[in-house]
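User: Structure with zinc ion, tokens only please.
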Amino acid sequence: MSAGRAQAAGVTDGAAGAERADIGVIGGSGFYSFLDEVTEVTVDTPYGAPSDSLFLGDLGGRRVAFLPRHGRGHHLPPHRINYRANLWALRSLGVRQVLAPCAVGGLQPEYGPGTLLVPDQLVDRTKGRLQTFYDGVPRPDGTQSNVVHVTFADPYCPVGRGVALATAREHGWEAVDGGTMCVIEGPRFSTRAESRWHAAQGWSVVGMTGHPEAILARELEMCLTSIALVTDLDAGAEVGEGVSHAEVLAVFAQNIGRLRDVLFDVVARLPKERDCLCASALAGQDPGIELP
Ligand SMILES: [Zn+2]
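Assistant:
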């Protein structure tokens, strides 16, 4: 796909069926690497390049676009991910529902390694990330958005959350229904004092990529469902040496297979027609730019 075409209008209907998808999965290469047939599509956006190519495949009768959040080889730290380009690129391929699996630390002792949690709230503790498409800054093609304020009281798609929870339970994984994901800037982990403070607020898990992914999806009227796998207890909730990256990777490796199984079933079960409020997040407001 040429950069110009993606920038101009996304992929038009019927132009290239192989380059369309209706569900997006933002996650590691472990999720799609074994699919039989994968089409690699390069998309450019008015906000720059996404983390990597998008990998399109068929799953449970649905067309899915996988995007490695940190790039192939995991070279992008959380604070350098081009979140705007990632969400814009997915939408330009036709994606309207996004699944966002991520690794998190447990802030409460009951959420130990291997816990699956489908959050219903988030708290932004990041610093200086670009978190809106509607900043009124001219884009490369000279167009410029209006200022838009979207409702974000409930940051995640209620329908996607329900499907994720029911599917995990059918797989024998008693996922935690709801909870607050605290998103820190990273790439360092929290100090014990920070972690105890986060826990004392009653927040459930801590991660580094959940913001601004969810708000950017909402700004493009896409559904987003976060599926958080706890890989460690955060510094304030454990009594050992603190979180190590090796520990995180080991727990992730142990659980990637069953997380993938759950995720693929969730893809198949997401509704084909949306009746959630995500789909009309911009109702009554003029973004001033054409969405892809
Ligand atoms: Zn929705």
